[in-house]
UniProtKB/TrEMBL annotation:
It is an enzyme of class 1 (oxidoreductase). GO terms for molecular function: NAD binding; UDP-glucose 6-dehydrogenase activity. This is UDP-glucose 6-dehydrogenase. The active site is at residue 260. Residues 313-415 form the UDP-glucose/GDP-mannose dehydrogenase C-terminal domain. It catalyses: UDP-alpha-D-glucose + 2 NAD(+) + H2O = UDP-alpha-D-glucuronate + 2 NADH + 3 H(+). SUPFAM superfamilies: 6-phosphogluconate dehydrogenase C-terminal domain-like, NAD(P)-binding Rossmann-fold domains, UDP-glucose/GDP-mannose dehydrogenase C-terminal domain. Belongs to the UDP-glucose/GDP-mannose dehydrogenase family. Keywords: NAD, Oxidoreductase. The lineage of its organism: Bacteria, Bacillati, Bacillota, Bacilli, Bacillales. Substrate binds at residues 152-155, 204, 249-253, 257, 320. NAD(+) binds at residues 30, 35, 86, 121, 155, 263, 327.
Length: 437
């Protein structure tokens, strides 16, 4: 089938590349000329394992092309995916300007009947609005139908998630559209759940909000564990054995970040507010997370008595491993707070330092290796559980620091390991390990 994807951010690019991989002819449109030039050469603008190889393969096989022009990009389209951003406005609402502009462009440039599918996360009712915008401007002999197909991929494992997802959700209002979209997705061999458009839009927000709630829940439990002498890792494991609860998204840490959970939880609170529903539970989820992001600094302050003039090594800066995405990363909150307290920071991240340097305060110095960041530091803070950080032996901190104190915001190490290494080790929801003197 001939497919056009509009927007080449995480969702758009991964969607376009994956749809070409399963045999469709895909054109991705983006207004950024430099980015399109790079993508035509097979260079991915984002760091995403497996994406670039798949891009190169499908460009060579002539199933994947990139365009800046709506006219050229939409000429042949049978199915059009909208995958532009819906960033958060100051008041928490989703900003729909990009989506609305795209709807206008589609109306102006399509020459034949097509299905317009929204992949971007949009408030309930937005698809109706997209339909209205397009229909009001459409040429007389052209027809479109509207559908919603929310995205559930995670950054850092986006290709894997696309090919091994638990479900594909398709929201439609007519049988023909439903059947055509079923044919588009069939080669993925993933269960398809059909529903109406508004429910599909809601499934996306409700899913992200629920996952965020699981994280805030276990983070709250972690505080109680510390006070009553329980171990949150063990508690989460024991809870997760119950299939009704499930073992995923129960990892306590320094809170959720990224481009989705913070934005979508705020947007859902707004959506609820519009229909006069005070979503108290979700408000608490957000509040817990805001505290969680800087709580590790409190632990450092309690232990060191202050950080003025001290050197803190920050290990991992991206909001999670396998991505260079810094959006709403806890490292931003943490580094700003430490900078305000006049601490010196030495940071290491295998991929995200470039992006981080544009966002973090000047007091942060960037290093190419864990060893260089840690050498001579007064304390280490582990902020992202990258593989190399997780596997960096705790004993190595002994040789790099005068008095090794590690604050682990991601529970990368076992307490036994910390005891054997003879380091001071403070983690989340577990007792602190203090070496015998
Ligand atoms: C999330 C959802 O998982 C995807 O299903 C969804 O498609 C995506 O948002 C989106 O809306 O586009 P993503 O933001 O890429 O994906 O990352 P996650 O792996 O979900 O992690 C989000 C944050 O939660 C990270 O900061 C991570 O460190 C944190 N987290 C995750 C925890 O603190 N504990 C956990 O147990 C799991």
């Amino acid at each position: 089938m001939k497919i056009t994807v509009i927007g080449t951010g995480y969702v758009g690019l991964v969607t376009g590349v994956s749809l070409s991989e399963i045999g469709h002819y895909v054109t991705c449109i983006d207004i950024d000329e430099r980015k399109v030039e790079q993508m035509r050469k097979g260079i991915s603008p984002i760091f995403e394992p497996g994406l670039e190889d798949m891009m190169i393969k499908n460009i060579r096989q002539r199933r994947l092309a990139f365009e800046t022009s709506y006219e050229k990009g939409l000429a042949e389209a049978e199915v059009i995916f909208i995958a532009v951003g819906t960033p958060q406005k100051e008041d928490g609402h989703a900003n729909l300007t990009y989506i609305e502009n795209v709807a206008e462009q589609i109306a102006e440039h399509i020459e034949k009947n097509a299905i317009v599918v929204t992949k971007s996360t949009v408030p309930v009712g937005t698809n109706d609005k997209i339909g209205e915008i397009i229909h009001s401007r459409l040429k007389a002999d052209v027809n479109i139908s509207i559908a919603s197909n929310p995205e559930f991929l995670r950054e850092g494992s986006a290709i894997h998630d696309t090919f091994h997802g638990d479900r594909i959700v398709i929201g439609t209002e007519d049988l023909q559209t439903r059947e055509t979209l079923e044919r588009v997705f069939e080669p993925f061999d993933i269960p398809i759940y059909h529903t109406d458009i508004r429910s599909a839009e809601m499934i996306k927000y409700a899913s992200n909000a629920f996952l965020a709630a699981k994280i805030s829940f276990i983070n709250e439990i972690s505080h109680i564990c510390e006070k009553v002498g329980a171990d949150v890792e063990s508690v989460a494991h024991g809870m997760g054995l119950d299939k009704r609860i499930g073992n995923q998204f129960l990892k306590a840490g320094i809170g959720y970040g990224g481009s989705c959970f913070p934005k979508d939880t705020n947007a859902l609170v707004q959506i609820a507010g519009h229909v006069a529903h005070d979503f108290e539970l979700l408000k608490s989820v957000i509040k817990v997370n805001n505290y969680q992001q800087s709580m590790l600094v409190d632990k450092v302050l309690n232990r060191l008595g202050g950080v003025t003039g001290k050197t803190i090594a920050l290990l991992g800066l991206s909001f999670k491993p396998n991505t260079d995405d810094m959006r709403d990363a806890p490292s931003i909150v943490i580094a700003n707070r430490l900078a305000a307290l006049d601490a010196r920071m030495k940071a290491y991240d295998p991929i995200a330092s470039g992006r981080a340097s544009q966002l973090l305060p000047d007091a942060v110095e960037y290093h190419e290796s864990i060893e260089d960041a840690v050498r001579g530091a007064d304390a280490v803070m582990i902020l992202t559980d990258w593989e190399d950080i997780k596997h960096f032996p705790l004993a190595a901190y002994q040789t790099l620091m005068a008095e090794p104190i590690i604050f682990d915001g991601r529970n990368c190490h076992s307490l036994k390991e910390a005891e054997q290494a003879g380091v001071e080790y403070v983690s989340i929801g577990r007792r602190a390990v203090i070496p015998a003197t």
